[in-house]
Amino acid sequence: MIIEPARETPVLAEVDVLVAGGGMAGIGAAVAAARGGASVLLLERLAFLGGTTTAVTLGGLCGFLRADNGQMYPIIGGLWSELEERARRMDALGTVRVHPTVRGVHGLPYDSERMKLVLDTWLEDAGVRILTEATVVGVARAGRRVSAVFIESKGGRHAIRARNFVDATGDADLAARAGCGFALGEAGQTQHASAMFRMAPVDRAAFAGISRAEQDARMEAAVDAGIDLPRTTLAIYPGLDGVGVHLNATRVGQPNGSSFDWTDPWQRAAAEREGRRQVALYERAAREHLPGFAGARISSIGAQLGIRESRLVEGDETLSEADVMSGVRGDTRIACTAWPVEDHAPGRATIWRPLPDGFSYGIPFGSLVPRALDNVLVAGRCLSATHIAQASARVTAPCLAMGQAAGTAAAMADDGGVRVDIAALQARLRSDGALLDP
What we know:
Elements: E1 11-20, H1 24-35, E2 40-44, E3 60-61, E4 65-68, E5 71-74, H2 79-89, E6 97-98, E7 106-109, H3 112-126, E8 129-132, E9 135-142, E10 145-153, E11 156-167, H4 173-177, E12 182-184, E13 197-200, H5 204-207, H6 212-224, E14 235-238, E15 245-248, H7 265-289, E16 297-301, E17 311-313, H8 321-326, E18 333-337, E19 341-343, E20 351-353, E21 361-364, E22 376-378, H9 387-393, H10 396-412, H11 422-431
Parallel strand pairs: 1-2, 1-11, 2-8, 11-22
Antiparallel strand pairs: 3-7, 4-5, 6-7, 9-10, 10-11, 12-17, 13-15, 13-16, 14-15, 18-21, 19-20
């Protein structure tokens, strides 16, 4: 151990609400808090906003529809609807695709590069201050309240003071550094991550000629031919460029089948290398076994792994598997969703558990409130949830909705803390277009 000398840390900014993390949950929190009248600073460790959406890249945005009697209906509303509108104006969205066999699974193809511009302008229009390439490295805490966060950037170490904080880092970095209790998945086992990538040029008409079942069978044939693929149920989305496709294909786990510990820097670094190794395997498998891919090659790999699950905070309330599968909305709900349980467990198949037809469930406000803290909220995949429940709630649109709720509450909160009146919070969310009664 090395004992660091005491030092004075300059205060870089003082705001009403500090949002850590510029992914979809953080975007929602920052916009909502600013519109609630708060001065807001958004921190992002990368050089651009969007998190998983733009750094990892997804083939399609998901979680904004529910299935009922063979039809799909809106389930989120609020800031999600505004994001869709802004993205369409900038020609950043394609046409919704619905899974042919798994109820409730849908995706909206998008242009990840244009999305960066969409998010920049959205936050600027909302009056949010943005600081990119800044990483939360510590907190100052007095009792149950955080008074400041410490960041590191190219300018060195600084402190930022705020009245309330929203942790949208995905890994609950701020809340964990403040002493909030958390679980790491289920007994240390989390869903496996994926290295996302694109291939081009692809003869998309030829590829469209096979069914999803035949696609899976061809990947199993690749395994039989000696290509050691850890996963054979691939999600392949057409890119908006007309020539490429996005592949959600890899399954990044340890050789013994267990998950990596995403809070361990050595394991995380090893996982990133493993992801890129697997991308090369899938390029070969696609070229040799899928129609339309023979002349294609890797055109890009996500800047980082798509991590589905790490720290899950201990909150005032915990979303459970029973809540999800039984369609429990609950009196404290701040968002509703109907995405199936999507479990990327060991094995070559993704485990899908659709909700009963017509069902949706509510995400409780208490799942965003760390039990040990009074002025910190979380939003996104680090919510208080069981391992299985989080496998449903963690996708794009629900994360944005959680962020909207957290940012709205952070702006409403006074010195008494973020446990605001739930009826008043719900009324504000409804007035802002959130669908709490779909």
